[in-house]
Amino acid sequence: MGILRTTTAIVGWGSLATAGTYVAMTRNSKFVAMATTDEIFTNAIYTRLNPERNPTFHDLCIRRVPLSKIRPELLEKDGKLAEQFCAGVWSGSGYTIQRKILERLFRGPSTAHQLWDREELAASSYPTGTQFTDHFEVVSHSTSAIIVRSGDSPRKSDVRENDGLFEMRAEVEEAEGVAEFQLKSCFFQGLGKSDSSAPPIGAVAGWLHRVYTKAGMVRCGDKSLPSFPNADGWVQASPAGSDKRKRQVAGVARAGLTVLRFRMGAIRRAALQAG
What we know:
The chain is α+β, with helices and mostly antiparallel strands. The chain is built from ten helices and seven strands. Helix 7 (203-220) packs antiparallel against helix 8. It starts with a helix and ends with a helix.
């Protein structure tokens, strides 16, 4: 019950968002098939972290935004769009609840070098080696994609029982006049040979993970709205309807409460510590 008390102390019992709010805010993001030949499975990082090639739970969520809606300065230098996308995912409302839980449980002298505050997460360019909220570490950074390791504290660098990778990718498609943002997730058992051929996350937890993923994608596109004046945005602001959008974004953030226990190994760690 410790983690439940911690969660409700942060967000309150009455904070669950309605399904209608969620659908409205995530309609521009969609999941598409992710091939087992995707480069996330062929890079050296994945091979090192999953030496037994255990089964994975993986998915790919995309959002396409017209270039006319992207801040011009983010298109002028290679890598800026991917960095801003990554900053949006982790500084956004979709990650707020989990960030606050992790902060209560693990922020201290031993993690002082990590990023914790929303302002830090919004401002970072996420170079390789960046650690944040005692649950993530940037393990690869290129001009088009940033890969982050999850599943446990970044202070544990060896192969882990539960592990995972997120890839935030931003690609400009000039011919179509759009930028495509991709958020990939890949979870697996790293330590030892799995005794099952099934993915490490079941159908219900997988569905909830996708709900949370789409909520995370939403906040990226809203960073320049007037309701968030202190965060740099990557989509140009549209003042019309900003109050309504503010309420909707807040609702999507609160929807993340329903899936926290299913998505991250950090929540399992927190439950054990809280007793």
